[in-house]
Fold:
Amino acid sequence: MPTRTQIKICGVTNANDAHVCVGLGADMIGFNFYPASPRYLEPKVVRRIVDGLPARTRAVGIFVDADPAEIRELAKIAGVQRVQLHGHATPKSCTKLAREFRVIRAFSTDARFEPEHIAAFPFCHALIDAYHPELRGGTGQRCDWSAARAAMRYTRFLILSGGLHAQNVDRAIVEVTPHAVDVCSGVESSPGVKDHRALKKFISTVRAVSSMANAFLF
Structure:
């Protein structure tokens, strides 16, 4: 059956970049609500950006070790229907949030990562990212692609993240076959500032390799 690899652009910090992402064909746009991140935005600012985007745009709020009540409050202020959770979000809290939002549970491929642990989050999409001892996403480091491939069997929707850019995303899609790819620093000129030429190259590369893969199905 033909497949289309979806594209998530993360760490968007302004309306112009958001509109460029949508215009180029991004499926999801991520806004960072983690105060320690250089890409952090206040929820009210995100709301103004989201309200100016086409209705089809899937906006995602990124949280790190946030309390479920805080996630609900900030997501509603920002007008996002999808939440991406990093850190220690439990299966119980994710299941509760999944009643109100589309939940993306992030996992890092550190030494303790076991693909089967993803099965404890049946109502979530899984995002597989690189491990960093201090940072939560946007590190530019590549995750373990073999671990990500192994995780495919334990989730209904897998998003591959970590160190992706236009020069390696084609190989990543071929090796992992994710449902979606996520890019942040790989399309930036500086943290939070998107390079529009890099964005165009990344998105066109993903579309090309997806089309090629589908062609072999017929």
Q: What stands out?
A: The two ends are 9 Å apart (CA to CA). The longest strand covers residues 58-64. The domain at 6-213 is CATH 3.20.20.70 (TIM Barrel).
